[in-house]
UniProtKB/TrEMBL annotation, chains A, B, C, D:
Protein name stated in the entry: Thiamine-binding protein domain-containing protein
Domain Thiamine-binding protein: 13-104
GO cellular component: cytosol
InterPro entries according to UniProt: MTH1187/YkoF-like, Thiamine_BP, UPF0045_domain
Top-level division of the source organism's lineage: Eukaryota
PANTHER family named in the record: UPF0045 PROTEIN ECM15
Protein family per UniProt: Belongs to the UPF0045 family.
Any single Pfam family the record assigns to this protein: Thiamine_BP
Listed SUPFAM superfamilies: MTH1187/YkoF-like
Length: 117, 117, 117, 117
């Protein structure tokens, strides 16, 4: 019997997907396929050089990452390994963009403070 | 509209869950709660010093990790970050125990070969 | 005796550092300190919402991440956990910016093709 | 100029190394090579189904993981991606074995308590 607990209504996940046993060491084609699938999901996402960050309910986010695996398997990739960093919080809602802004504000304040010395 | 693609029927996920903003640096109490929840899930799992490995369908595995987040939030942890390594393959079914056995067999063969050499 | 093998001359590492047992769930102050330390390192780095990507020789990159841990310990954080995704390749040198460009080029080509199709 | 801060004298790192662009989806051969290299390093390490945990000074641990990359590159693997979870703490020294023991003790106590209850 599965536990009746729900999953979190909101999360931010950053995933780095790696196909194994592919003829070349390049993964750009697979990552492009992943971006196209994410686009159809309706979730907010952003690509960076070490992964893709996606935001939404836990179930929606994890489903779309699983669908990325399934899609690539159907395209012929026999084995896939992903690293997923996923965060949830209940103290406040924080979008993925706000995290960087907050750090940059602290950095700017620090520089102002040292200029004002 | 969500993509109609299914998620993989089988995966092995290894996750390391970290509570943030807790009064102590110890996470043993939270990890013990996670083990209890996993026990009720019916999935195969094993605890090691750097995480917990769990095996099952993509949806079941990801649901139970999400439930771990939700359970700890309800126990008062305001923020949780998990690192999840998740692998899927379609060339063959491989349980989590077999991976280590395969490497150990290769190591043993290598030692036999060098003794014979 | 340590093996005489060298470490790779170039790598791209993306790390997400998490302080444990801190009074608040916010990590912005710690991440700002990390950015300041990276700035003094002379290495190329970029902050995104799920971590910081840094590029350089294996030894330089790993040293600076270790220094980030040490710095935060000295600032009073008793326990720190980082997730580091690190990649090396010998087929060609690829900077962290080029990875995203390559995927975006593939996506743009795909859209051109479907428009032309 | 590199910062004069030292790196932590002790850490526990768990790494999962993935070769890219190899002819097969199996990684057992590469993981066996990694275990052999770790054996020569003199560091404590243990293999589990989702990675290898290694313990020592930050510099020693990160050097040996880098040497694993370099070794596999020399064996012909053109691209390697590792996920490394690394933890440091200054409140007390905790070996990798103790973490699991502590959780298991908590679980056993909970079961005793509910039997007595």
């Amino acid at each position: 019997m599965s536990s009746p607990l729900p999953t979190p209504p909101h999360c931010i996940a950053d995933f780095c997907l790696i196909p194994l046993g592919t003829p070349t060491a390049s993964v750009a084609r697979e990552i492009a396929s992943v971006q196209r699938l994410l686009k159809t999901s309706g979730l907010s996402y952003t690509l960076h050089s070490a992964g893709t960050t996606v935001e939404g309910s836990w179930d929606d986010v994890m489903r779309v990452i699983g669908q990325c695996h399934e899609m690539l398997h159907r395209e012929g990739v026999v084995r896939i390994q992903s690293d997923v960093r996923v965060g949830t919080r209940v103290d406040r809602v924080q979008g993925m963009g706000e995290k960087v802004e907050r750090v940059e504000r602290l950095l700017a304040e620090g520089e102002d403070a040292s200029r004002e010395g």
